[in-house]
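Appendix C reproduces, verbatim, an entry submitted by the partner laboratory led by Prof. M.T., so that reviewers can inspect both the input and the predicted structure.
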Amino acid sequence: MDMHHPTGTKPSRNSANGQEKDIAIKFFSDLFGLKYLKNYIGDITFLTRFPSMLQTSSVSDVLSVGVSEEDGLRAPPPSRKFAAAESDPRLEIVLPLLHMRFSALRTGDASGYSYDRTRETVENEIKSTSQTLGAALPKHILITFHNVYLEHKLSCKATYLVSSMKYDRQPSAPSMIQKIKALQVKLNATKDRREQRALEDDVTGKILWLFWCGICAEVDELLPKVVDYIRREGNKMGLRSMYDIVRSTERRDPGHDQVYFQRVMFDAETGTSKHHLWLAAHTAKQAKPSDTASHTSAIDTSRVPLGYTSNIAESMLFVQINSTQG
């Protein structure tokens, strides 16, 4: 940071950076459906905390939280206070909400939360979430809730369900961020539009995969607290009803943008680089100019507008880095 920069311009610059960061946080929150997810697991704060984590180099610690908790069923240690869940500000709103919903599903009515109203609300939330990158998260959470119900009903005879949700539980976050920064530098420097698109695929996919891992890790950190609360509240019969609602709810097909985001995030998970594919295709094209289509069709696919996601992501990832390293 330039300590000799005129102080009169700092508030304006900081304000602009803050607005860009807020826009980026909302964009990615909507992309992963966090406004619906909070009604099942609480407030996911990873995206809000991410810029400050870049400054403190604590991203790896945050991404690895909850690794030792399997399916949310591990019993809390004896020394743990019963109020652990209630004292977590991320759970302040969701715990009473879950209590009301479980009560309504178990008894048919709970302080204005009727069974029909609760079922309709849950169905609408699941349908909306199914059109986001966080589509797998409600099922993951509700499988845990269902297992708690089985644990209560059948004890040791139960056959627990296993979540199929995948994420890297111990990613090398600093290394991922450095790769994203290097790709962004290449993207900003290249002039070829097809190469730009390939690089943007890689940048977008790696950012989404990094955020997905952070969100999933926080979900798995919060799940044992929510489960502990449910055990103590005694509304376990409502767990099965909510799981059945989620299981039977018809999903909505994702839109074109979501299909693109899912694809590039999966490519990042599997280590597929569209830029490497483009370079190989470009080399082959130069070797055989007459055979252009066969080399480009695989990577020149329709997608969101060029620059759409990387510019927003840059607001979140790089404004904070540049402000501390400038």
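The mean pLDDT is 76. Additional entries are available on request from the coordinating office.
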